[in-house]
Amino acid sequence: MNIRVVPYNPEWPAAYEHEAATIARILGNELVAIYHIGSTSVPGLAAKPVIDIMPTVRSIEAIDRFDASFEVLGYECMGEFGIPGRRYYRKGGDERTHQVHIFGRNNVRDIERHLAVRDYLRAHPATAHRYGELKKSLARRFPDDIEGYCDGKEVFMQELERAALTWYRCGKGIL
After folding, report:
1. 3 domain residue, yes or no
2. Single pTM value for the model
3. For residue 47, what is the domain's CATH number?
């Protein structure tokens, strides 16, 4: 996987809306809400050009029955993929274009942390800029090493998530 971090693309929200509508049709009555998360959801933030989508559903256990429908759209069904209680789907192979992170509505912890980070970065452009600069630097340093890239972000992301959750829980965000 070649790691590319690019300037913010104003077409990302429309790409999210298009894919989210298709995913909503697949999930039907299981769907509770659907969110654009990750770096492409933050205006102005440099990002890997991968649209992250987070549907929340009534029952995470019911989601596996939709795997074939996701596969028709070109998604790989990855199961929990390291996060208990999640269903993860990715599209685009090594040149990934979309990632879907599905959580049951009762998984408030994981839902909240994703929304808190997104909303915090939207509300704190200086932090978003620092994050974008870090990602660009790491992409240059680790162009073919996703583990190195992710490891390089780990400390920043831990601090960001901690600050974002504190801010969010103080009423700055909406779940």
Report:
1. no
2. 0.94
3. 3.30.460.10
